[in-house]
Specification:
This protein is of the alpha/beta class. The chain folds into two domains: 2-250, 3-Layer(aba) Sandwich (Rossmann fold), CATH 3.40.50.620; 264-360, Tyrosyl-Transfer RNA Synthetase. The protein is built from 17 helices and nine strands. The chain has helices spanning 18-25, 32-42, 47-50, 60-68, 87-103, 113-119, 125-141, 158-170, 174-181, 189-209, 224-237, 274-282, 292-298, 306-315, 319-331, 336-361, 365-368, and strands spanning 6-8, 11-13, 28-29, 54-58, 74-79, 107-111, 149-153, 215-220, 243-247. The protein has a seven-stranded mixed beta sheet with strand order 3-4-9-8-5-6-7, sandwiched between helices. Strands 1-2 form a two-stranded antiparallel sheet. Helix 6 (113-119) packs across helix 7 (125-141), helix 10 (189-209) packs across helix 11 (224-237) and helix 12 runs antiparallel to helix 16 (336-361). The mean pLDDT is 95. Bound molecules: tryptophan. Tryptophan binds at residues 9, 76-80, 110, 112, 115, 198, 217, 219, 223. Tryptophan (TRP) binds at residues 9, 76-80, 110, 112, 115, 198, 217, 219, 223.
Length: 372
């Protein structure tokens, strides 16, 4: 069916209407008023906020109220280690780093090696553990503060999480899990239990400190389903409901849908050799015309162009330059080849720097990764 799209934690499909998603999920849009409040404390507004990439939330106002009263929040986010990290995964983490710096917030980072084992037909526990450690290198490489950041693999931190997971699990019925996640009689029983594990870090700091510690979860909007469950059970367990701030999906090089780790040619991985990444960009889908003549006459369409989207999402921080790029494309003032070469240069430079930090991160794993 045209215009139909699916967004669940395990499947993102079709052309996504982000406004409809807010309605479907019952979340709130981030208002100008909220942006003003964030800016007051953070000093700068991150481009992902200015550009509506982080665009939806639950109870963000409450988190700011608490912060203004002197009650600091913790940040919680995570990654399902099913493969190497690509640029789409980095996006919310880059934003999380901005929040950590701006609000002096502690971060809990959950690597759900259990989840990816349970939901995959091919990955073994050894595979997901290996990817978890590889993915952790990317998190560390982004520059999180080791004194304020704890990263853990579920399978290596389960004793510390199990009591809370049980408390959550007892409050979630099978019919709720079916309604929220679409499970049926053929679903394995581990996958049905899993959401209770993803809830735990939202409550962990309150449990540790034995007082209500507000928690803000930055994540892509597909993860919202888990946290609807978390928020429903929170009052029953005596914890504050975690707040959420949701982002859109980073586009793939085909110009549509989200970047997917299973399509290696249309995603850029943090471990790609810069030359390989460059080639992927040169081969990418653009919003350009078929010939130079037509491009000059009719102009291109940045809205469907993956190259433009890359600049907009991550690779051009200056709003004025984004606007210029957009207009010049529309006017036919710039050709796709030029645009691609410029982006390829930026991405290659980013990868070179990131890969150096990523290798250094191997020696820092112990500072970040906690175990039972
Ligand atoms: N389930 C997420 C994934 O598949 C991983 C995850 C765990 C997560 N906890 C999280 C993501 C908190 C965002 C916020 O990627």
């Amino acid at each position: 069916m045209k215009n139909d799209f699916v967004v669940t934690p395990w499947e993102v499909k079709g052309e996504i209407d982000y406004d409809k998603l807010v309605e479907r999920f019952g979340t709130q849009r981030i208002t100008e008023e909220l942006l003003r409040r964030i800016k007051k404390h953070a000093k700068t507004l991150h481009p992902m906020l200015r550009r509506n990439i982080f665009y939806s939330h639950r109870d963000l106002g409450w988190i700011l109220d608490e912060y203004e009263k002197g009650s600091k929040f913790i940040l919680y986010t995570g990654r399902g280690p099913s493969g190497d990290t690509h640029l789409g995964h980095l996006m919310p983490w880059i934003f999380t780093k901005y929040l950590q710096d701006s609000f002096d917030a502690k971060l809990l980072f959950q690597l759900t090696d259990d989840e990816k084992f349970l939901f995959s037909e091919s990955l073994s526990l050894e595979d997901t553990k290996k990817y978890a450690y590889e993915n952790a290198l990317d998190v560390i490489a982004l520059g999180f503060d080791s004194k304020k950041t704890e990263i853990f693999l579920d399978t290596e931190f389960i004793a510390s999480q199990y009591r809370l997971a049980l408390k959550v699990a007892k409050r979630v019925t099978f019919s709720t899990a079916k309604a929220v996640f679409g499970f049926d009689n053929s679903s394995n029983i581990g996958s049905i239990f899993f959401t209770s594990i993803q809830s735990v870090p939202a409550f962990l700091e309150s449990e540790r400190q034995n007082k209500a510690v507000p928690c803000l979860i930055p994540c892509a909007i597909d993860q919202d389903a888990h946290f609807r469950v978390t928020r429903d059970v929170a009052p029953m367990l005596g914890y504050p409901k975690p707040s959420l701030i949701h982002c859109k999906f980073f586009p793939s090089l085909t110009g549509s849908d989200k970047m997917s780790a299973s399509k290696t040619e249309t995603s850029i991985f943090t471990t790609d050799a810069p030359e390989v990444a460059k080639k992927k960009i040169i081969d990418a889908f653009t919003g350009g015309q078929a010939t130079i003549k037509e491009q000059k006459e009719k102009g291109g369409n940045p809205d469907i162009c993956s190259i433009y989207q890359y600049c907009f999402y991550i690779f051009e921080e200056d709003d004025e330059k984004v606007r210029e790029l957009r207009e010049s494309c529309r006017r036919g003032g710039i050709l796709c080849g030029e645009c691609k070469r410029e982006l390829a240069k930026r991405v290659a430079k980013f990868l070179e720097q990131h890969q150096k930090k990523r290798e250094k991160a191997r020696d820092k794993l112990e500072e970040f990764v906690i175990k039972d």
